[in-house]
Amino acid sequence: MANDTVLTPVEHIKARSNYLRGTIKEGLADTATGALAEDDTQLSKFHGFYQQDDRDLRSERMRQKLEPAYSFMIRVRVPGGIATPAQWLALDELATSQANNSLRLTTRQAFQFHGVVKGDLQSTIRRINYSLLDTIAACGDVNRNVMCTPVAETSAVHEGAYRVATQISEHLTPQTTAYHEIWLDGEKVAGTQDHEPIYGATYLPRKFKIAVAIPPSNDVDIFAQDLGYIAIEQDGKLIGFNVTVGGGMGVTHGEAGTYPRVADVIGFCTPEQVVDVAEHVVGIQRDNGDRTNRKHARLKYTIDDRSIEWFKDELAKRLGYALPKPKSYRFASRGDVFGWAKDRHGQWHLTLFIPEGRIQDRGKARVLTGLRELARVHKGDFRLTANQNLIVSGISDAARPSVEGLLTEYGIQQLQSISPLRQQALACVALPTCALAMAEAERYLPDLTSNVEALLDRHGLVQEPISLRITGCPNGCARPYLAEIALVGKAPGRYNLYLGGDALGHRLNRLVHENIDENNILATLDGLFARFAAERSNGESFGDFAHRALPAVEAR
Amino acid sequence: MAASPSTIPIAPITGVALQSLHSAVADFDREQLIWSSGYLAGLARAGNAVEQPQPAAAAGPDAWTVFYATETGNSRRVAQSLAERARDAGVAVDLQDLRDVRPKALAKLTRAAFVLATHGIGEPPDGTETFFDFWQSDRAPRLENLEYAILALGDSSYADFCAMGRLFDERLRALGAKPVVDPIECDLDFDEPAADWSGKLVEHATKNLTVSTANRVQRVPLRAVSKLPSKDRPFDAELLLDQRITGRGSSKDVRHIELGLEGSGLSYLPGDSLGVVPENPPRLVEALLDVVQLDGDAAVTLGERQTSLAKALSFSKEITVVSRPLIEHAAKQHDALQRILDDRSQLADFFATRQIIDLLADYPHAWEAQELVDSLRRLSPRLYSIASSPDANPDEAHLTVSVVAFEQFGRAHWGAASNYLISGTRTVPVYVEPNDRFRLPADGDTPIIMIGAGTGVAPYRAFVEHRQELGHRGDNWLVFGDRNFASDFLYQLEWLRYRKDGILSRLDVAFSRDRAEKVYVQHRLLEQAKGIYEWLERGAHVYVCGDASHMAVDVHAALQTVVEQQGGVSAERATEYLNQLKSARRYQRDVY
Question: Which of B491, B499, B507 is facing A65, going by the closest CB pair?
Answer without folding.
Answer: B491
